[in-house]
Write a structure and sequence with these properties.
alpha+beta, five-stranded antiparallel sheet, 38% helix, 26% strand
């Protein structure tokens, strides 16, 4: 939290009322213009704490009108009412009066961005441009002067266009870009290095015109608006101008490349008439106006959005308080506004992600206001981000932002309220003592002990002795130390290269010197009797203060050697025994490091805890990390530590505050707007850094002050201060205040005249118990130490040591606290022990029952419920998604709305149950109207609502008529019947369609006829049954039987028929009834001896087949027997089946007899009957006779039966079925034979391939040879393949010979015939010779044929090359014995005849033809000689061929007839 130190300017007595103020853009120098009616006007300069600069006083008899600082140099331009313009230099006070150019009031003074140009303008419209050198000195007369003849109002310089990017040009040059290369050369234009100064500017006049003056000082009118121009802004992102007139009309113009302006937006800004308007423009495109209202208006020109920021009375602002002026600090994103009641409102900009749009959303958070006296009329932020100047019409105050100082030590806490006020709280075992300290110095730091309060301002140190409720000033001395530490009677201050140990009066007792390498001490911290010092060179030293003189506890440690990227130390703290030092650092780039470093003094090592990843760098991690630690580790990730403390008495316990990484650069005063987490760690040499707890900082608390077991100590947020009364922000109640008997307040101790009462200083320190010490805040030291050990061992995971540390503790509160801890750690085994020590049997039983749940979270949730940790239980149920248990939890805890939402969204299976329970709850609470609604939602209203409203009959009757529900009608009718209102009851029974009740009431009333009509018309079984009972009671048997039948109460109807001899109706009723009633009726008929056919039929229908058959055989009812036999199957009695089959055989019904024999498993008899009676065996019958269970028949008998079935099928010509049965019997040979008889080639081939037996392959191949294999190549391949698979080379050779003969006889293709014979020879060669010499003879014969064919083929091939040699070979071939059938004689002679005819030797050809006819007198020569050769021979020789033709024709006819006969 921040306070603003208000420094009133030390104005000289001659100065008047301040009228204007302005800060230098870079230096902490403030210029203030004042007016006095007697002396005229003054301009003075002041430093950041209001110090008056005497040398820089300017006084004139006229009023100052404009103040403008040079952008970089300490030069101030002053404009006066007389038209004089002066340049004032700081700190020398040199004054340079500009040459007399203006004769009227100066209205314009504007510097260019680098200060090389100065523009001046006056009330008459005269404008001059001056040149200024680099030192801020005026150079000669004005460059140009323009006359606009109207008062000048505004002037702004246009920013220069961006310069050339040198790096980009260099890359382009290297890549070969000549234009880029020329820009580097001397030939081209000079290279623009970086942004240049913009010399063009815009100036506006009171008549609404805006003129543009370019860098050559040439002027032109750019645009014109209605009314005087009040403000002009340049929108750099859009390259546009925004113009605001006196009438608050905002216009925006785009600037063209040639100097023109085009209006694209015009809007009227809201304002309060008659008030001065303060307008602020930000670089981000935000327009802020203060118009004397209770709020300020903001227009976002980039997003075209507008909104207002009002004052908040809950923060201390008053009703009717107006905002007069505004100022915006871009560096800190803070907006300050001055009010009419002397307050300064401050808003901080907070940028938050907008999840709905995926963009960022800007919000403004109003801070605690700062009070100054008077009426704030002007505000301006200074060059330093912490300086704000405010003009309250009487004087000027410089406000310097300072983080509120606070300190805690030895149960005493001090928190700064104002620059000079402290709130002091003493925590005693009996009560809380509140004190107030009013100092005469601005407090920049405070340090407290149990006996003293020390404050310092950076220039002076003051020590106050603290004795019970009294503060006494014991010493004050000047000291420039910006940090002070206190231990006992000693004060520790710093100066270059040493630490001074002083008395409370400032006397130096001892010096702790530091070498030049160790640097200058800048950080001090005391814990118990140890002092740690941090230097500006990142060295640390620890000193032991337990003796009279401070002794070095360890040598100086250079942290820069251990920590990478270390820039500077931010904070150092040591623990209670001086063994550990915690360090916060800034990185080289100035950003805070997200690691917390720890220096082990004894081991001389540095470790760290990285809050960016949420893990320590080293140390022994837990062997089994719990889910809690993993969860906390994920919560810690992406964070940065901002403050840290060690416990004052426990050296192992450490605590720090962390913020998200995005907020680590924020000032401490801004920490109330971000997510701050308090993280507690154990730090030991044995186990390293262990995360003990992490929880968000409670609301209403400002920052962490200290850790002193069992409490964390926090400073409270200060809501606002009105006058001298302080209002703390309402936060969580201090639990410590409930433990003490009361609080004591003492009046403030001060050194000034004001004496505020003690009530003006509220309690500004709040303490919160550590998680492990909730309920144990007042425990003794031994218990506290035991609990710390327990917490440490529990964090490590060593449960044995944890139990040892607390086994002697008898307090139930301790065990309850441990049980609560078990909810966090999810250690149910520990929880059971805790519940046992607590004596909480109910919780132990509930936990035992919860073990049935499969989810560990659900079990822990039950423990949390028993310990009244309802929020934890709710979170646990949600985490394990046990919405059913969560629903029950909500119901049990009375959270019905949450229960309903859970049931509707996540637990719909219990939705109706939840509605019902809620309705019961509402009924118990007396809310019957809402209960009725939820009974309807649960669908239980038909019973529950009448029950609920039974005492309110009028409401119930209305509800009955409203709902029109049958069940409710019935309930209401029963109620009316109980009230003896029978007519109304009948009406409502009829509405409910309750026919039973209608019949019952009519019977009661004697309306039997009406009751019969209802029963007959509706067919209602219950109504019919009731009416039948009524008729039976009145001995109307016929009607009783009728209505019993309609009610399907057949046993009652049968009973009446038997009793009254109604045999005809009995049969029909028995057939409609169940088997038991059929049995009774059949027995009745059998005993009576009449209608035996009915008895047989009923026995059969009832399922008593054997009884029906016996009775049918006994009474010779053959038709009944046939009906019964149709229902017999394999499950029937075999003897019964055999008897029936004999009956059917006797009556020549062999088909039925066979079926019954098969059902009786007498397969041989059934088969014999089929054979003898020539009954066709269907596939279904054959399958039924195929036995699959080995229990019925042995394997051999089963195969024999199958073969007999197959034989029978063969005889009947059912070859496929026979094949199937032979196959099932395992006789594949017979199966193939059956299949061969069927002639199904496809199945034959398939069966042979599946069976893979040689015999079957040969049989299949033999069968395939009988087919036309000459025309089907696939069959040919299959034959060869089967013979090959069947290993029958002789048969395969014979097949090849047949193939060769076919090629010769049909196609005269001796080449293919030769190939076939060669294959035959190969096959025959492989065959084993079983006969004596037959194979050799056959091979010799094949070889002879092959030789002859080869000769003939050779002769034919040779013919083309050497015809004579071919003829000679052919002649020689004809001389060979046994030429035919290897080579047909006709083919050889035909070859010769063809040759001679071609050669023209017709005589020789004719002789060869004659020889052929003699050798083959019965054959036609046309088979061997072409028709062309025969015709040529006939023509040349003149011989008729009729005889031969005739013979040929006769031969052909004979062959055709033979073919026909064969087919």
């Amino acid at each position: 939290m921040a306070v603003y130190f208000d420094h009133r300017i030390q104005a000289p007595e001659s100065s008047g009322v301040p009228s204007q103020l302005t800060w230098h853009p870079a230096l902490p120098v403030l210029a203030v213009a004042s007016c006095s009616p007697t002396t005229g006007g003054n301009v003075d300069l002041y430093l950041q704490q209001g110090e008056y600069v005497e040398t820089c006083h300017v006084e004139r008899p006229h009023q100052p009108t404009v103040l403008r600082w040079h952008p970089t140099k300490p030069v101030l331009a002053l404009g006066w009412e007389s038209g004089e313009a002066v340049l004032l230099t700081h700190p020398s006070g040199d004054q340079t009066v500009l040459p007399s150019t203006h004769a009227a009031c100066i209205t314009l003074l504007e510097w260019s961005s680098s200060g090389s140009r100065l523009v001046t303008g006056d009330q008459t419209g005269a404008l001059a441009v001056w040149k200024v050198d680099a030192r801020g000195r005026l150079q000669g007369n004005h460059l140009v002067k323009h006359e606009y003849n109207k008062p000048l109002t505004c002037c702004i310089f246009r920013p220069a266009s961006p310069g050339d990017d040198v790096a980009m040009l260099a890359r382009a040059s290297v890549s070969g870009d000549e234009s880029a290369l020329d820009m580097f050369s001397w030939k081209g234009a000079p290279l623009k290095m970086g942004p240049q100064e913009g010399l063009a500017f815009y100036v506006s006049t009171a008549d609404g015109k805006l003129h543009c003056v370019d860098e050559h000082c040439k002027t032109s009118t750019l645009l014109s608006v209605e009314g005087a121009i009040k403000k002009v802004f340049y929108l750099e992102k859009r390259e546009a101008l925004a113009v605001i007139t006196e009438t608050m009309m905002l216009s925006q113009y785009t600037l063209g490349p040639e100097g023109g302006a085009q209006e694209f937006m015009k809007v009227k800004l809201s304002s309060k008439t008659g008030q001065n308007v303060d307008i602020v423009w930000t670089e981000s495109g935000l327009l802020i106006t203060a118009t004397g209202e209770q709020f300020i208006r903001l227009w976002d020109l980039e997003r075209d959005d507008n909104y207002v920021l009002p004052l908040d009375e809950t923060l201390g602002f008053e009703r009717g308080e107006m905002i007069n002026c505004v100022s915006y600090c871009a560096g800190k994103e803070i907006l300050a506004a001055g009010t009419s009641h002397g307050r300064i409102a401050i808003w901080r900009m907070v940028v938050q992600p907008d999840s709905s749009r995926g963009e960022t959303k800007t919000q403004w958070k109003l801070q605690t206001p700062t009070e100054i006296d008077g009426h704030v009329v002007q505000l301006q932020w200074g060059s330093s981000l912490n300086l704000l100047a405010a003009n309250n019409s009487n004087t000027v105050l410089i406000l310097c932002e300072h983080v509120m100082s606070a300190h805690f030590s030895q149960q005493v806490a001090a928190v700064q309220l104002t620059p000079t006020q402290l709130s002091i709280t003493q925590f005693t075992p009996v009560n809380l003592v509140h004190l107030a300290l009013q100092s005469d110095i601005h407090i920049k730091g405070v340090c407290v002990t149990k006996d003293s309060v020390t404050v310092w301002s950076g220039k002076q140190v003051t020590v106050h002795e603290l004795s019970e409720t009294v503060l006494r000033n014991t010493g004050s001395f000047p000291c420039d130390s910006h940090v002070v530490a206190v231990h006992g009677e000693n004060l520790y201050t710093v100066e270059p290269n040493r630490v001074q140990i002083r008395t409370p009066q400032g006397t130096v007792k001892q010096l702790l010197t530091f070498s030049k390498a160790e640097g200058n001490p800048v950080l001090l911290s005391v814990c118990q009797s140890y002092l740690v010092v941090g230097t500006d060179t990142a060295h640390i030293r620890v000193f032991d203060l337990s003796r009279r003189d401070a002794k070095a506890h360890c040598s100086a440690k250079n942290l820069a050697e251990q920590i990478v990227n270390l820039g500077a130390l931010r904070s150092v703290k040591c623990n209670a025994n001086g063994s550990q030092v915690s360090i916060l650092i800034s990185q080289v780039n100035g950003r805070p490091d997200h690691k917390m470093y720890f220096y082990d003094v004894e081991m001389d090592t540095v470790t760290h805890f990285d809050f960016f990843i949420g893990r320590p760098s080293s140390g022994i991690s837990q062997p089994e990390e719990s889910e809690r630690q993993q969860f906390q580790g994920s919560e810690l990730s992406g964070r940065c530590p901002v403050s840290h403390f060690w416990d004052e008495n426990e050296p192992r316990l450490f605590v720090c505050e962390t913020v998200p990484i995005s907020s680590e650069s924020s000032s401490a005063s801004f920490l109330d707007t971000v997510d701050v987490s308090v993280v507690t760690l154990f730090c030991t040499q044995e186990h390293g850094l262990l995360l003990q707890d992490c929880y968000p900082k409670p609301s209403g608390l400002q920052t962490l002050l200290a850790l002193d077991v069992p409490y964390y100590y926090f400073s409270c947020k200060l809501l606002f201060r009105r006058g001298c009364v302080f209002r703390p922000e309402p936060g969580e109640r201090d639990p410590g205040s409930a433990e003490v008997s009361g609080t004591t307040s003492a009046p403030p101790h001060h050194s000034q005249s004001s004496k505020p009462s003690a009530a003006q200083f509220p309690q500004m320190v709040s303490r919160r118990a550590l998680r492990d010490f909730v309920g144990l805040e007042n425990c003794e030291k031994a218990t506290r130490y035991a609990m710390l050990n327990f917490s440490l061992y529990l964090t490590i995971g060593d449960m044995d040591e944890a139990f040892k540390s607390i086994k002697l503790i008898k307090s139930k509160a301790v065990w309850e606290n441990m049980a609560r801890m078990c909810v966090k750690t999810r250690r149910l085994d520990v929880a059971r022990v805790c519940l046992g020590n607590m004596g909480n049997a109910r919780a132990a039983k509930a936990l035992k029952e919860a073990e049935a749940e499969p989810e560990p979270e659900a079990q822990v949730a039950m423990l949390a419920i028993q310990l009244n940790m309802l929020e934890d239980a709710e979170k646990l149920y949600k985490s394990c998604q046990r919405y059913d248990l969560l629903n029950n939890f909500y119901q049990a805890s009375g959270q019905w709305q949450q229960a309903l939402e859970t049931a509707e969204n996540c637990d719909r299976i219990h939705l109706r149950t939840t509605y019902y329970n809620y309705a019961k709850y509402l009924e118990s609470m007396g809310d019957k109207t809402l209960a009725l609604t939820y009974y309807e939602h649960s669908d239980t209203h038909r019973v529950e609502v009448p029950r609920m409203l039974q005492d309110d009959t009028s409401s119930l009757e209305i509800y009955v008529h409203k709902m029109k529900d049958k069940n409710i009608y019935k309930w209401w009718a029963q109620y009316l019947e109980s009230q003896s209102d029978m007519d109304s009851a009948l009406r409502f029974y009829e509405c409910a369609q309750d026919y039973l009740s209608l019949v019952r009431v009519h019977c009661y009333m004697g309306n039997i006829q009406k009751a019969s009509e209802i029963a007959n018309d509706t067919g209602d079984r219950a109504a019919s049954y009731h009416l039948a009972r009524h008729y039976e009671g009145h001995d109307d048997i016929k009607q009783a039987v009728h209505f019993y039948t309609r009610a399907q109460a057949y046993n009652n109807a049968i009973r009446l028929c038997k009793e009254n001899g109604l045999d005809d109706q009995l049969m029909n009723l028995a057939l409609l009834s169940n088997p038991e009633d059929m049995m009774e009726a059949a027995c009745y008929y059998e005993e009576k001896g009449t209608h035996m056919d009915r008895a047989v039929a009923l026995y059969h229908k009832a399922g008593y087949v054997s009884k029906a058959l016996e009775l049918a055989f006994a009474t010779q009812q053959f038709s009944a027997l046939q009906l019964i036999a149709e229902d017999l199957n394999e499950s029937s009695d075999p003897a019964l089946l055999a008897r029936c089959s004999d009956f059917f055989i006797t009556h020549s019904q062999y088909d039925k007899a066979v079926e019954l024999l098969v059902a009786a498993k007498k397969y041989h008899q059934a088969l014999e009957l089929c054979v003898t009676q020539n009954l066709t065996i269907t596939e279904e019958l054959a399958e039924r006779m195929t036995v699959t269970d080995s229990k019925d028949l042995s394997e051999e008998s089963r195969k024999e039966l199958l073969e007999r079935i197959a034989d029978c099928c063969m005889r009947q010509g059912n070859y496929h079925l026979a094949t199937k049965k032979y196959t099932q019997a395992g006789n594949k040979l017979k199966a193939m034979r059956a299949l061969l008889k069927s002639g199904d080639t496809e199945k034959i081939v398939f069966f042979a391939n599946v069976s893979r037996q040689k015999e079957l392959f040969i049989m299949a191949a033999n069968y395939l040879q009988s087919l036309d294999w000459r025309k089907n190549p696939e069959i040919l391949k299959t034959i060869i393949g089967f013979y090959t698979k069947g290993r029958a080379p002789e048969l395969l050779a014979g097949f090849y010979e047949a193939c060769a003969q076919v090629e010769i006889d049909d196609y005269q293709n001796y080449e293919k015939a030769l190939d076939a014979l060669t294959e035959a020879f190969k096959c025959l060669s492989k065959a084993k010779d079983s006969s004596t010499g037959q194979q050799e003879a056959r091979l010799a014969d094949l070889q002879h044929k092959i030789t002859l064919i080869k000769k003939f083929v050779h002769a034919r091939r040779l013919y083309a090359e050497d015809a004579g040699e071919a003829m000679r070979l052919c002649e020689a071939l004809l001389e060979e014995p046994d030429l035919d059938p290897a080579v047909r004689i006709g083919d050889a002679f035909g070859f010769l005849v063809e040759h001679h005819c071609q050669q023209g030797n017709f005589q020789v050809a004719y002789r060869k033809l004659e020889e052929l006819q003699k050798l083959l007198p019965s054959q036609n020569v046309r088979y061997y000689i072409s028709q062309a050769s025969l015709e040529a021979l006939q023509k040349e020789m003149g011989l008729p061929m009729d005889r031969r033709d005739h013979r040929h024709n006769v031969k052909e006819e004979d062959e055709v007839e033979e073919d026909l006969n064969v087919s």
